[in-house]
Structure formats: C-alpha cells, structure tokens
Specification:
The protein has 11 helices and 13 strands. With 332 residues, the chain is an alpha/beta fold. It folds into 2 domains: 166 residues, Thiolase/Chalcone synthase (Peroxisomal Thiolase, Chain A, domain 1), CATH 3.40.47; 151 residues, Thiolase/Chalcone synthase (Peroxisomal Thiolase, Chain A, domain 1), CATH 3.40.47. The chain binds oxa(dethia)-CoA. Oxa(dethia)-CoA binds next to helix 2, helix 6 and helix 8.
C-alpha cells in the first residue's frame, strides 16, 4: 500500500467585521456587568457584522488573505470546505457562494456542520483529499455570524458570541517534519438538548409561532456544556498525547476553541501544559464558533508563538456534542 500523503497548513487568513460590541454596550442592553463577563467568561469585546453582511462575506475575506499569503490564485483551489452553523441560507451551501465570490472556477465544495468543532473536522476532511493524492489545494474555512442567531435580550447567551472567520490552505507536506499528524474526533448526540437552535429546520419550519417562541435563536444550558467541555476536551487531548508518546509539556502551542477562559484554563491545567504554550484571544473576539481556532492560530502567529516545526495541539467541544483534538507540526 502506498503511504498516504501528509497535508500541511501552508497559509492562513482571518477576518472579523470592523464593528465592535463591547461589554459596556451589553451593559446597556441586558442586566449584566463587565465584571461578570470578564470573570465568568473572559470576554471584553466581540466583533459583529452590519446588516446585510453574511457568513460567506467573512469567509471570502479570510480566504483571500490565505490565498495571498500562500501565493495561490482562486483558480488553483481544488475544493472548498466551509464549517459553519450560520450558513447564508439553508441552501445553496455557503461553500458554493464562497466559490463564486472568490472566482475559484473549477473547484467543488460543501458545508460541514459541527458547530464549534467545524474547523478542525473540516481540516481533517480536507486532509483526506490531500492524503488520497487527488487534490493539491484545499481551502478549509471556519466562519460564523453568530449575531444572526442570538437573542440580544438573553443575557445568558448574548454576552458570549461574536462573528468571525478563518481560512487555512491545505497542501501536501514536503516530508513528515511538518503537517497534520493525528486526530481524535467523537460526537455524543445525547448532549444535543443542551445547546441547539430548534427553529427553521424540517422539524420546526419557520412560522410566526416559532419566531414568537424565539426558536430561531441559540438555546444553551451553559453549566451542562461547561462540565462536558472540560471533561471531554481533556480526555481526547490526553488520549492523543499518549498514543503519540507525548506529554502536555511537549506541546509548543495549544490552540483550543475559545468558548470560556475558565474551560481553557481547566483543560490546560489538567493536561500539564506550559502556560506560555496556551493561545488565548477570547477577550478580543468572544466565541465565534467555527471561527475561533483559525482566529487563534492568527493570534499565535502575531505573538510569534508559531514557528516552523512547532508541535501544535488543537481542541474543541461544540454543540452536538462534537469533540475533536488534532496534533500537527506547524509548516512555515
Ligand atoms: O462554544 C460552544 C460551547 N459553549 C460553551 O462551551 C459554553 C459553556 N458554558 C459557559 O461558558 C458558562 O456556563 C456560561 C458562561 C454560559 C455561564 O457561566 P456560569 O458560571 O456557568 O453561570 P451560570 O449559568 O451558573 O449562572 C450563574 C448566575 C445566575 O444567576 P443566579 O441564578 O445565581 O442568581 C445567572 O442568572 O449568573 C447569572 N448570569 C448572569 N449574570 C450577569 C447568567 N448570565 C449572566 C450575565 N450577566 N450575562
């Protein structure tokens, strides 16, 4: 059997819309305080779109940046995978809209629904196309406009989320010194009732009644999600480290989903990570769902914490529940 071709992230692009929604703004909208949000979640501000701006617009900006950085043209792309829970519309897929807006003639693509784990799930799906040798360039995008599905009168959810996108260009790695090494994914559908948007699908198509009942918004039992996130994220990362003969302290950059600073800290402590290896930017962006991990990769690059050959671990827990952990060596 021929050895699968290893995929590497050869370029990254990120984008957040310019408009800021700060804790001070939220204090005027709901019964909350900057102090509560900072201590319980760790967010100071998030970015939100203006009316008329959709997920595909954010995705295209991030993709353009990734292509420019990688020195590739849109027509070089074989496939586009967009991880999102806030597609512009139910169909056509956001990937089709991105393909058209980018001018990626000849590419194919699809959306992947895995909530906050969508970027790392998409990364592994894209890597399989590279591994099989059929594709040379896959654009993997995590993008969400969470502000389109948030109830800005519900203080339990509206302080948490923001809008943003990131795009990674996947290409074949020249050798095994860089690129994606291993991953573990798991879903647990029994947790679906703790974080979901009930309206607008085939079970509860949108009607005046579903809107009156606020079924088109995110519903979350925060404590259940919190406990599950800490436990399962740690468990999968631990397994991944063990089966690769590694310890937490071997990781150069831990890039987790940014849902709550306390979830990140608890996971990092349990895994025995070096504090300086933990990448955090939740304060500036909030939880952008599929956008958090590529945005945090961008932060790690900005802070000089990602160098060629560095050992990186990605981790996420999201609605579903979906859980994922990925090990890779940074490629540039
Ligand atoms: O990315 C998808 C995955 N999602 C997550 O990982 C989210 C996981 N969950 C969390 O991050 C946390 O559970 C939250 C940030 C959502 C909530 O924090 P918490 O520490 O679990 O708070 P809680 O729900 O236990 O609420 C504690 C108190 C309650 O008041 P009482 O009942 O003690 O009087 C809430 O009503 O805080 C109150 N509260 C708020 N107070 C001020 C809830 N939201 C707010 C708020 N401002 N925004």
């Amino acid at each position: 059997m021929t050895k699968p071709i290893r995929a590497k992230i050869s370029a990254l692009g990120t984008y957040v819309p310019p408009r800021l929604l700060t804790n001070a703004d939220l204090e005027k909208m709901v019964d909350t305080t900057n102090e509560w949000i900072m201590t319980r979640v760790g967010i100071r501000e998030r970015h939100v779109v203006d009316k008329g701006v959709a997920t595909s617009d954010l995705a295209v900006e991030a993709a353009k940046q990734a292509l420019a950085q990688g020195g590739r043209a849109p027509t070089d792309i074989d496939a586009i995978i967009v991880g999102t829970v806030t597609p512009d519309m139910l169909f056509p897929s956001t990937a089709c809209l991105v393909q058209h807006k980018l001018g990626a003639k000849g590419a194919w693509g699809f959306d992947l629904s895995a909530a906050c784990s969508a970027f790392i799930y998409s990364l592994q799906v894209g890597a399989q196309f590279i591994a099989g040798g059929l594709h040379k360039r896959v654009l993997v995008i995590g993008a969400d406009v969470m502000s389109s599905i948030i109830d800005y009168t519900d203080r339990a959810t509206c302080v948490i989320f923001g809008d943003g996108a990131g795009a990674a260009l996947l290409e074949p790695a020249e050798d095994d010194s860089v690129g994606l090494i291993d991953y573990i994914h798991e879903v647990d559908g029994s947790g679906g009732c703790y974080l979901y948007m009930p309206g607008g699908g085939s079970l509860h198509p949108s009607t005046r009644q579903t809107v009156d009942q606020k079924m088109h918004y995110v519903h979350q039992d925060g404590q259940q999600v919190f406990k599950f996130a800490v436990r399962k994220q740690t468990e999968l990362c631990q397994k991944l480290l063990e089966r690769n003969g590694l310890k937490g302290s071997d990781i150069d950059a831990f890039i987790p989903h940014q849902a709550n600073l306390r979830i990140i800290s608890a996971t990092a402590d349990r895994l025995g990570l070096r504090p300086e290896s933990v990448i955090v930017n939740i304060e500036r962006y909030g939880n952008t769902t599929a956008g958090t991990i590529p945005l945090a990769m961008g932060t790690a690059l900005e802070e000089g914490k990602l160098k060629k050959g560095n050992l990186v671990m990605l981790a996420s827990v999201g609605a579903g529940f979906t859980i994922g952990a990925t090990l890779l060596r940074w490629a540039y």
